[in-house]
Design a protein that fits this description.
The protein has 306 residues and is an alpha/beta fold. It contains 13 helices and 14 strands. Keywords: DNA-binding, Transcription, Transcription regulation.
């Protein structure tokens, strides 16, 4: 029995779509259909009920699912335990956020290409809420975001925490003295996308301060490049992870503000679905944790997935 056909069966079952499974496996819908037809012929059962809109498991498909997952997982364990792990191949879709791009994503990509040269990476950068949704819908294999994601089948690995600081352009003249929240609330406050963890923290801070939230202008963007450009141009103030603004502070494009209103740190997680036959997202997640922690990383460290 062909392991690749079983993997195809699992992806169709997860995504409930032949075309989505084809995209995920970097093949054609016709190839997926042929693999499923061959597998059904070998087993002597129909695995899926299909119509123009829906794909669903038959009772026989439901019974086959757990056993197929076990076989594929054992095959993956065999490849990792006996074969050369550096010859792993495949494509991993990673969704992440601007903060990680600014901090250490280039190092992660460099390590992946060094240790797994036959693995291709697809990168998507968006806000944490969007990336989490993409993970749950199977559009990305690994999410590096402000987490965690508490959903069945998801594994969360703590990466790191970054402190958040108030910053502004020096031309606003707000630095060099102690400020209350009402002192800076006259300026627009730039925050991440509405509903994100940083945006919610700013909103809670304003509500707890007693300020009228309707009089405080919070401007949202999912682009750090946009926020930092506008703040550097003196268009308002912002609360941003310290790792993002470190170089801008050194160049004196931005200045720290001493505000009597602290924002909780940004807690970052690597999240992936624990699925049989897909060891790469977990391997890369642990690699990301080592890089985020500043640990030395080699090929052996990358294989540690406990």
């Amino acid at each position: 029995m062909n392991i690749r056909f079983l993997e195809t069966f699992l992806w169709v079952a997860r995504l409930r779509s032949f075309s989505s499974a084809a995209d995920r496996l970097c093949t054609t819908q016709a190839a997926v259909s042929n693999r499923i037809a061959t597998l059904e012929k070998d087993l002597g059962v129909r695995l899926f009920d299909r119509d123009l809109r829906n794909v669903s498991l038959t009772p026989a498909g439901e019974r086959a699912l757990a056993q197929a997952e076990t076989i594929v997982r054992l095959a993956a364990d065999l490849r990792l335990g006996v074969g050369d792990p550096h010859r792993l191949r495949g494509r991993v879709a990673i969704g992440t956020i601007d903060t990680i791009v600014y901090a250490w994503l280039p190092r992660l990509v460099e390590h992946v290409k060094s240790i797994y040269p036959e693995v291709d990476l697809d990168l998507t950068v968006d806000n944490s809420l969007t990336v989490a949704r993409m993970l749950l819908e199977g559009q990305v294999d690994l999410a590096l975001i402000a987490g965690p994601v508490l959903a069945p089948g998801c594994r969360n690995i703590e990466l790191c925490s970054y402190g958040c600081v108030w910053v502004a352009s020096p031309r606003l003249g707000l630095h060099g003295r102690r400020l209350m929240l009402e002192d800076i609330a006259t300026q627009p406050i730039f925050a991440f996308s509405r509903g994100s963890q940083p945006h919610q923290n700013v909103q809670k801070l304003i509500e707890s301060s007693g300020l009228d939230p309707h009089l405080v202008r919070i401007l949202n963007s999912n682009s750090l490049a946009t926020i930092t450009r506008l703040v550097r141009d003196g268009m308002g103030v912002a609360v941003l992870p310290d790792v993002v603004v470190a170089e801008m502070l050194e160049r004196e494009e931005l200045v720290l503000l001493d505000v009597d209103a602290r924002i909780p740190p940004l807690n970052l997680h690597a999240i992936f679905r624990d699925e049989p036959g897909s060891p790469l997202p977990g391997l890369i997640a642990h690699m990301a944790a080592a890089i985020a922690a500043g640990d030395p990383l080699d090929g052996h460290a990358a294989l540690h997935t406990e």
